[in-house]
From TrEMBL:
It comes from Carboxydothermus islandicus. This is HDIG domain-containing protein. CDD domains: HDc. Pfam families: 7TM-7TMR_HD, 7TMR-HDED, HD. PROSITE patterns: HD. PANTHER family: CYCLIC-DI-AMP PHOSPHODIESTERASE PGPH. The chain crosses the membrane at residues 12-32, 260-280, 292-312, 332-355, 391-409, 421-443. It comes from the Bacteria. Residues 479-622 form the HD domain.
């Protein structure tokens, strides 16, 4: 046993290493094997032609055009009212101060001296003496001229860039006024001195305008035809050459040891996370090597498919090429994992695979987000699978979720409205359709290859049109209707104890198919005819009755029923004793009869579902034998049957707890109360008499 466990560990380790290498190779896989390693300024060693036609965005030229558009947007300035008021106040104070000097009753020399001291700027020689001779009215006219000129100029934005240009217009504006030489000169000098920029630079508004101008510039698309020469032998490599080679996938990236190490850690921890979860939460899946291999295959397939889709180039609509990744149907992997392995594991794998799909792509975070939400939609879409068309409905859900997610992300990313809506309307539905197609297409093959019975297969088995159920209905109708009722009981109980209710129902439908070989040896198919067991000894009757288990297993294999259903057929009686024939043998041969000769061969139920079918089968048969099934008698009989099976050891290997048995009894009571309820006795009415009475 220890050696077997060690072998299992070794095999799991080898499988882990194999998929680890496969995922790493997939991440660094080159779709175009012939690549070159060129740099700007290098001489091309060979002539390179385009292997296919593509249309791609020249990002360098696009960025260059956008930067040019940004540079053409002038800076935004805001006029500062406080600066305007300060300039006008300073000019008015200057003129008022000079006016006070002119009003003084002092000598011209003293006035001249005070004017020179008051002036904040230098005056030409003799100008101060000329000013002393100006009368007050002329000086006030000069002041009014200064105020009018400043009022006109300060309405505009005066910036450091246009300040010199505006100052150059002062002489022209002063000349419009009828002023003498000293008046004009002092006016020009004062305006030049006091005038300054009145506008404050607004960097935020400027950047907004520049960003808007850059976004308005369309992307620069470059078209390359198949076999078109990209670069000739001996030519000097330019950035344009490199852009074309990179778009075609012909440019070999610089090898980076750091990238390799990062990818190793990313893949390693991405693979380790689900294994750690399974080890802690689903040990039975962790120890099932087939399921681990299946998990790896599904993950590898969806990543390879994603890489293939991301390599698609939409030549007719180049703006769509970077968005093709939105069509990656991660929901297919989520649904397959949820159906074939475990629902909670599927949600975890959705997050991890979305991370790997977005890793290294231009969309990166956006693609990961769309993949994640579409994957969740797929997982929740099959969480309560009840019919095959639920897979198609899940595909529709994926398409709707992907559409909304794509539209939201592209609008946030400020993609043009037309492109955003077109991408959402195309790639969202494609995502859902591909997910549904791949799930429906691969599900049967994966089930067969890995010997897994999914809910879809069980649903197909549960349909009344299945050949074996139709055969049971036609040849053993009593057993057929008994099986339907057992299925209802088992399903109701399974919901109460967290068992697989669909498996319990299907197992109940087929548990007695072995009775098809000799239907009239079972009481439910005798319909008032004689009971053949009355003419047989108890040992032979026991052999005939117990053989229906073996016959059922053979018939199930003939019709290719899943092994989990065959197990229920084989275990639904366990090693129970056939009390009727055992008691009959005692009555004939005495108490020395060996009870083991009257038991089913087994094995005992090993799963909750098999145990539920056993209990439902026994309870249905026992309750049906009641002469007057009142609710109290039915409830008491249900608990007696369950207790007998427990004491006989039939439930020892089923993992059912005492609380489970209590919940099962309650579920059985509820179902049976709806079947064996009291009915009103219908009066016997003579219809013919009523008709004659009405005519008369």
């Amino acid at each position: 046993m220890e050696r077997l466990k060690n072998n299992q560990k070794l095999l799991r380790g080898l499988v882990f290493f194999g998929f680890f290498v496969a995922f790493l190779l997939l991440m660094f896989l080159e779709f175009i094997p012939h690549r070159v390693n060129l740099q700007v300024g290098q001489v091309a060693p060979e002539t390179i032609k385009a292997p296919r036609s593509i249309v791609f965005e020249d990002k360098a030229k696009t960025e260059e055009a956008r930067e040019k558009a940004r540079s053409q947007v002038p800076k935004v300035y805001l006029i500062n009212p406080e600066t305007n008021a300060a300039i006008l106040g300073e000019v008015n104070n200057f003129f008022l101060n000079i006016e006070k000097i002119l009003k003084q009753n002092i000598s011209s020399k003293q006035k001249e001296k005070q004017i020179i001291e008051e002036m904040p700027f230098s005056l030409p020689a003799g100008m101060a003496a000329d000013l002393t001779r100006i009368n007050l009215e002329r000086w006030r006219a000069t002041q009014r001229a200064a105020t009018e000129i400043l009022g006109e100029l300060l309405k505009k934005e005066i910036t450091p860039e246009n300040f010199t240009e505006i100052k150059g217009t002062l002489t022209e504006k002063v000349n419009r006024y009828n002023l003498s030489y000293p008046e004009k000169e002092v006016l020009i000098l004062s305006l030049n001195y006091f005038l300054r920029p009145n506008a404050v630079y607004d960097p935020e508004a400027t950047e907004k305008l520049r960003d808007r101008a850059a976004q308005a510039v369309p992307k620069v698309w470059v078209s390359i035809k198949q076999n078109q020469k990209i670069i000739g032998e001996g030519e000097i490599v330019t950035p344009e050459h490199l852009a074309k080679l990179e778009a075609l996938g012909l440019l070999k990236p610089k090898p980076s040891f750091r990238n390799l190490i990062g990818a190793v850690f990313l893949v390693f921890f991405t693979m380790l996370t689900p294994l750690f979860y399974l080890y802690l939460q689903r040990r039975e899946v962790f120890e099932n090597l087939n399921l681990l291999i299946l998990l790896g295959i599904i993950s590898f397939f969806i990543l390879a498919l994603a890489k293939s889709i991301l390599a698609i180039n939409v030549g007719a609509f180049p703006e769509m090429t970077p968005l093709v990744g939105y069509a990656v149907p991660l929901g297919a992997a989520t649904m397959l994992i949820a159906i074939l392995i475990d629902f909670n594991l599927s949600l975890l794998m959705t997050a991890l695979l979305a991370l790997l799909i977005g890793f290294g792509t231009e969309l990166s975070l956006k693609l990961s987000i769309v993949s994640f939400f579409s994957g969740l939609a797929g997982g929740f879409g099959v969480s309560h699978l009840s019919q095959r068309k639920d897979l198609a409905r899940a595909g529709v859900n994926i398409g709707i979720v992907a559409l909304i997610a794509i539209l939201a992300l592209e609008l946030i990313d400020k993609t043009p409205l037309g492109t955003a809506f077109l991408a959402a309307l195309i790639f969202g539905p494609i995502n859902g359709i591909l997910a549904a197609i791949f799930t429906n297409g691969f599900l049967p093959y994966l089930e067969t290859t890995f010997k897994i019975t999914s809910a879809v297969t069980l649903l197909e088995l549960a349909t009344p049109s299945h050949p074996l159920l139709k055969k049971l209905l036609m040849e053993a109708p009593g057993t057929y209707h008994h099986s339907l009722l057992v299925g209802n009981l088992a399903e109701a109980a399974a919901d109460k104890v967290n068992a697989n209710s669909l498996l319990a129902r299907v197992g109940a439908y087929y548990h007695d198919i072995g009775k098809l070989k000799r239907p009239y040896f079972f009481v439910e198919n005798q319909f008032g005819s004689g009971n053949p067991h009355e003419k047989l000894n108890p040992n032979l009757s026991t052999l005939i009755v117990t053989s229906h288990v073996k016959d059922g297993v053979e018939l199930a294999r003939e019709y290719k029923l899943p092994q989990i259903v065959i197990d229920i057929i084989e275990q639904h009686h366990g090693t129970s004793i056939i009390k009727f024939f055992f008691q009959k043998a005692i009555d004939i041969n005495g108490p020395e009869v060996n009870a083991e000769d009257f038991r089913y061969p087994g094995p005992k139920p090993k799963t909750k579902e098999a145990a539920l079918v056993m209990l439902a089968d026994s309870v249905e048969a026992a309750v049906r034998s009641l002469k007057s099934p009142t609710p109290g008698r039915v409830e008491g009989l249900v608990r007696k049957v369950i207790k007998d099976k427990l004491l006989d050891g039939q439930l020892d290997e089923s993992n059912l707890t005492f609380q489970d048995l209590h919940n099962i009894a309650q579920a059985f009571d509820k179902v049976l109360s709806g079947i064996f309820h009291n009915r009103v006795e219908y009066p016997d009415i003579n219809v013919e008499s009523l008709r004659k009475e009405k005519k008369s």
